[in-house]
Specification:
single chain; 190 residues; mainly alpha; two-stranded antiparallel sheet; elongated
């Protein structure tokens, strides 16, 4: 016997925080569960908000959606992310995604900064991007490769030129690491 779909405890709690009663949530879950198609908590919460007639829900949703589209994390939150290795462009990108996601899901955020910090910690600290036109590997990477015997100092310019040629159409979030791996692969015995 197939089990019927049920919303997660978090989805129920979010709807309750928005102002729906337990019976309204149960009724919405039963109705939504009977519909065809793939089920998800996000789609269920949207369905419940759209089909419930509750003044408390309207007030709760309005309060949850108070996070403005131009919301910015506090300097303290941004400093924590930078200290953890997140690049500024990644933080800005994740901020946009976080705000849209929070508004779309109707999440009640008591502390948006804390929620944003948790949101970022599940994502890469840098965004992938094309190789910059004037890119050069860092001195520390070159020193490490030379000390390990994987790169001769006299051949550094040729290796950089070869790397740039072969990677000009690719994306990476860490070009130094990509260069290091490229040199190591070229030096690996066949």
């Amino acid at each position: 016997m197939a089990t019927t779909w049920q919303p997660s405890r978090n989805a129920r709690l979010t709807l309750k925080q928005l102002g729906l009663s337990v019976s309204q949530i149960d009724t919405a879950a039963d109705t939504y569960g009977g519909q065809s198609g793939e089920k998800s908590d996000i789609a269920f919460m949207r369905y419940a908000r759209e089909h419930a007639d509750s003044p408390d829900l309207a007030r709760g949703t309005a309060k949850a959606l108070e996070i403005p589209l131009n919301w910015q994390p506090s300097p303290a939150v941004e400093a924590k992310l930078v200290a953890a290795g997140y690049q500024h462009d990644a933080i800005a990108h994740y901020r946009e995604l976080f705000v849209i996601s929070a508004r779309e899901q109707g999440r009640a955020l008591r502390d948006p900064g804390k929620a944003f910090l948790a949101y970022c910690q599940c994502r890469a600290p840098a965004l992938q991007g094309p190789l910059p036109a004037n890119w050069l590997p860092s001195t520390s990477v070159l020193e490490k490769l030379v000390q390990a015997g994987q790169l001769e100092q006299t051949h550094i310019p040729e290796h950089i030129a070869g790397f740039v040629r072969s990677h000009s159409q690719t994306l990476s979030n860490n070009w130094d690491r990509s260069f290091q791996l490229w040199v190591q692969r070229r030096r690996a015995p066949a």
